[in-house]
Every structure is written in structure tokens, then in C-alpha cells.
Design a protein that fits this description.
The complex is a heterodimer.
Chain A lengths: L1 H35 L11 E11 L5 E2 L6 E2 L1 E12 L2 E13 L2 E5 L2 E5 L5 E3 L4 E5 L7 H9 L14 E8 L4 E10 L3 H6 L5 E4 L8 E3 L3 H33 L1
Parallel strand pairs in A: 7-12, 8-13
Antiparallel strand pairs in A: 1-6, 1-11, 2-3, 4-5, 4-10, 6-7, 9-10, 11-12, 11-13
Chain B lengths: L2 H60 L6 H16 L3 H22 L3 H5 L1 H36 L3 H7 L12 H12 L1
Classes of the chains: A alpha+beta, B mainly alpha.
Amino acid sequence: MLLQNGLIVGLFMFLIGIALFAVGLYFYKKKQLIADTPTSKIRSIAMGLVEIFGQVTPIKERFFKSPFTDKECVYYQFTIEEYRSSGTNSHWVTIKKGEQRGLFYLKDDTGMVLIDPTGAKIEARRDFEYQSGLGKDPPDQVIRFLTANNLAHEGFFGLNKTMRYRETIIVPDETLYIMGTAGENPLKIEATENHVDSIMIQKGKYEKQYYISDKSEKQILKNLAILTYGIWGFGIGLIIVGAILFFGLM
Amino acid sequence: MDLWIIIVLIIGLLFFTLLIVLLLIYNGLVRLKNNIEKSWANIDVLLKQRSDELPNLIASVKGYMQHERTTLEALTKARTDVLKAPTLSKKAASDMLITESLKTIFAVAENYPTLKANENFLKLQNRITALENELADRREFYNDSVNIYNIRIQSIPDLIVARMMKCTDEPLFKASEEDKAVVHVSMRK
């Protein structure tokens, strides 16, 4: 029995190791793609996969307010979690999450281009985090949002529940790094009104990479390198240990 | 389990990892080579667009700029050369000559109020200036692509795969000193 369990654990570790190696490969390819693509100036963007860097400029009447901080933004993502316990087991449960993405322009010192963030992987640092609990009410804006969404922050006898509120936003003038596909702008009215080119950055049909980040390219590459080599190291370790365990017990 | 099975297994894993690394490097170099070709094609498109606009510009300023005949002749010649130049350096030199000639023409145009008021000339000036700006960006982009490629094929471990693929350094879009001298002679004639 012990031998059989050892074999299963060994095989499991080996397979997890292989899977981690494949995941590392994905991040490595992403890192190399970013490193190998030179940054384009916005006024001379060519069709196809491009890498650009610039400041967010909202489109008139296309921006919205973030739910918790009530700031004008072109993107927000939020989560509301509640701390629940049953016996010795306690954990955070997501009770509501959501996001909104709007069209915006990205501007550098040469021009601006329309961005449709639909389908993009957006990585931005968290702008707001608050934990409410006993004797600690949520901020007014959060209470308004909870009320509007039929959610309660109070439990029995009007006591505050332990809840966590998190929000990530992209605001006007924020500097962004974008790797996406430059293609035809189907929203000609937007382009004509604002005298910008007829190109729009979007998710490509063939190029699957569409990435938006508020970090610099150097920082993105550094993070991806740590992630890639970390995953590979762990994966290779699991493969070796798993293989030794499996074949050692066979 | 026998020790030799573990040794064979580890060697097998190392070979497998090496194979993956080689494949990644190979694919990376292919992508970089394609990037260079694509960025060159993007320059070429603009060079052609600008060349198409030049005869109209020359026609609209010819009557005014009798004293700038050398510049206009140099521009006409460079227009033909830039599309037919056999080497990248010569192409870059002709491109540089066009840029210099255009600067002269637009500067001299300031002295001719009737020309400056000519709507057709103004349209051409704006169009050509926009193309010049885009060309400057795309030249920079091309040179960045070449630079990334040249660094990669000279760095370890990519160097090993690059040698197997017989990759050589790609030239930058830059006129050599010799070709630059020709440009200066054309401008001073």
C-alpha cells in the first residue's frame, strides 16, 4: 500500500512538474516577445502587432466613475469579499466582483491612438483596499455601492461583518504600456471627431497577445523573468524528485 | 531501482530541456528576422508614397525657385535613386539627400509669399512633412529591430543557433561616410 502511494505521489509530482514547465514556457515566450518588439511611436504605427507607451486620454462621455473611490476612469475592476468561518475552517468568499472597460486614447509626444481594451489582459496595481469589521464601518461611497447592489455590510444585531473591498482603476493621464494589434478602426466617427488616425489598437484575429499594464517595460520584463525562472526551477525540481520517487519504488 | 535508470532519466531530461531551449532560440531568431523584414517593408511603403508626392512638389515650386535649380535637380535624382539604390547605405544616403533638399525648399519657400499662399503647395508641404515625420519614426524602429537582432545573434547561447542558421549582422538604415560625402557634393553643386 505504502509502495503504491509512493508511486502515485511520484507520478503526480512528475506530471505537475511537466505542466509547470509548460506554464513557464508560456511566460518565457511572452517575455521574449515583449523584449524583441521595439516600441513604436504612435504617429507611425504600422498594422500588426505593436508595442506602445503613453498617457491615457479619455474620450468625451466615454469614461465612468469607479465604484469605491468615485474617480473618473477608463477601466475599473473590483471585488467584495466576506470572511466566513465554520468550525475551525475560515476563509474569504467573493460575494461580488465586476469590471468595466471603456474605449480611450493613448497619447505620446507624437500623437494619439484609439484603444479598445476588450479582450486585453490588464495588469494594474491595486488602488484601493479596505477591510471593514467590528467597530470599523466601510467608507460612505462603499456603503452607497453596497446599498445600490442589495448587499449588506451588517449582520446580526447590526454588527459589521468582516468584509474586504478591493478596486483597481486606470485613470486619465496614467502612463500605460500596451502590446496589441493595430488594425482598422471600425469606429470612424470617433476618429473623425478627434482628428486622429483611422487605426485602433485591439485584440488581433491571429495575434493573440493583448496586454495592458501600468508598469514600465523594464519592470514587466523583470517580473516575467522572475516568474518564468521560478516556475521552471520548481517544475524541474518536481520532475526530478517525482521521477526518482516513481522509478525508485518501481 | 537501479542507479543507471536514474542517470539515463536525468540525461534524458537534460536533453529534452536542451532541445526545447534550442527550439525557442530558433523561433526567436526567425521572429526577429521577420520583424526586420516587416519594419523595412513599412519604411519602403512610405519612401514610395513620398516619391509619388515629389514630382507635384517640384512642379509647384519650379516657377518660383530659379535660383534653387541645383536643389531641385538633386531632389529629382535622389527620388529615382532612393527606390533603385543597390545597397541600404546608398538608399539611406539618397533618403538623406531628399530630406535635406526638402528642408532647403521649405525654408526658401518662406521668402516667396505667393508660393506660401498657394493652397496646393501648402497641402503638399503638410503631406510631405507628415510623411517625413513618419519616416523618421520608422527608420528608428527599423534600426531598433536590427539592433535587437544583431545583439541576440552575438550573445550566448543564441550565438550557437545563429551560427547553425548562418545568421549574419543586418545593416542599419544609415548612410556610410562615403555615401554621405556624395550627398554633400550633390547639395553644393
